Predict the 3D structure of the following.
Amino acid sequence: MYIQNLQPGMVETMSYVTVMADKTGRLVLKVLDIEGRIAKTMEANVNEGKQQLELNLSDLVSGRYVMNAFSGGNFIKSIRFVKQ
């Protein structure tokens, strides 16, 4: 599974992540605040192929975050973003 990007990088309420998957699986996204605490955890079932997942980040307070993506317990990618 491959995470292409997070759009937009300056998030207000909604954001989108583009995922490329070689097989069906479960994607876990953990959003960490600047101090490393888990601010939010999201899970999604991902189908084979390319897809765009909608992420509701409206419940986060303004600041800088890191989103870590995992599939099958394996780390995939870390993406930094700013919540406005």
Q: What stands out?
A: The chain has one domain: 2-83. The beta strands are 2-7, 10-11, 14-21, 25-33, 38-46, 49-56, 63-71, 74-83.
